[in-house]
Write a structure and sequence with these properties.
It is built from two helices and six strands. It is α/β, with parallel strands linked by helices. It has a six-stranded mixed sheet. The two termini are 22 Å apart.
Length: 97
């Protein structure tokens, strides 16, 4: 698998967008200790403007409450991306798709 880290995606039609991990028709956006909505704009830009279908939003947080998890689940289902939640304090990982 060929992928690029911290890749800037360019387009003749749209402004540049930075992607944490980018490969052949997939992208992974990583957020460390961020709010639940962080990364959603990148997901929308990649899906709508750049037609990338396989997108993962990976949140790493010390504390993930039920509202955070519920919001990511709803957004993932409605926007069509995979959510990965790493709860550092509990040492747990949840995959949402």
């Amino acid at each position: 698998m060929d992928c690029k880290v911290r890749h800037t995606l360019t387009s003749p039609l749209y402004p540049n967008v930075e992607i944490d991990v980018f490969g052949d028709n997939f992208a992974i956006e990583v957020k460390l200790e961020e709010k639940y909505y962080s990364g959603i704009i990148q997901v929308l830009i990649l899906k709508v403007l750049h037609k990338i279908e396989n997108i993962t939003l990976f949140h790493v947080n010390s504390y993930l409450d039920k509202k955070f998890i519920s919001a990511i689940k709803e957004l993932s289902q409605r926007l069509g991306f995979i959510g990965i939640l790493l709860h550092k304090r509990e040492k747990s990982l949840e995959v949402i798709y």
